[in-house]
Design goal:
37% of the residues lie in helices and 14% in strands. It is an alpha/beta fold. Strand 2, helix 2 and strand 3 form a beta-alpha-beta unit.
Amino acid sequence: MTTSSFEHIHIEVTNVCNFACEFCPDMILKRPRGHMKLDLLRKILDEVATFENRPTVLFHVMGEPMLYPHIFEAIDMAVERDLNLELITNGSTFHLVPKHIEKLIAANAPKVTISLQTPDEDSFAIRGEFKNLSADDYFQGIINFTRENMQSDSRTVVQIKFLDSTPTLFSMPYKNLRVIDGRDELRHHLSGWAQKLLKGSMPNAKLDALIQKEFARLLLGVPQFFQIHPKIILHSFPLENWGNLEQDEFFPAKIGYCDGAVGQIGILQDGSVTPCCTDYEGLIPLGDVSNRSLEEILTDAPARNLREDFRRLRVNNPLCQRCLGADTRSKAIVRQVGAIGYYKLIKPVLRRKQRV
């Protein structure tokens, strides 16, 4: 095993969150809450900086990274090591702590992904109840940050994420929620937010033409990216299953493939290493980076055995069986075969296109 295959390393700097989103398992998280020690984060980033390729380092598994007491020190450490950092935030502190806007723009992180997810006042209701954050204030904070970053000399690209809850043949969401359903509704919200973010930055006719072109053809149930400005990307993403831990009637997967522990890993705030970000409870412990190196952990038996199972297209771990399974037998078959097709056929093609 070498580190050259890793594309994503998820680092949970904190699992403390100020939202209670119904589409996220944060409300049922059983692990203790806490923040990663800064020295531990430094150790992790030092090692990742030696990896042969340049994996994307994502500050997020659970929790809200902007609540991490050392978040700007953490960003500085990643930038100093020339890491391909992606900070994932719900964007709430742009209104609650306005100085975060200027400080985050100055930090010059390569990418900031804002989990907008709920694009209007009605859907915002599933984020929880707030005494000091209305839907309008939340949205305006995100708009302010995105527009100020667009006008700055920062290299930061802002990606804004929308939650596509449209049911599909292979979808197996964590909860059955209605956020954005269908092409017309998805096009409406993407177009509306493009207008809010870009209004005044170009002639109205040019903006209208851009919106019509970008959102003319939309897919459902798959990730999509729309670069509406050199520093702004809109991203729609299907409602995730988060391992399907709460589903009672279930058909577990027996075959399938995943890039856990070979293309991605997760590191929880206490230093526990997991094969992917979906393992938010740390149910597949591969080791503890507090006292071992990532290289040692990833070459040890737990990670090797998991990779070998997937290499043979076998799904033996109970959490993996639930993640790739479904609530009906036919859907479970589609999801298992689909996972193999995606990782073995589609993803390599997408990777080659990105390199061209």
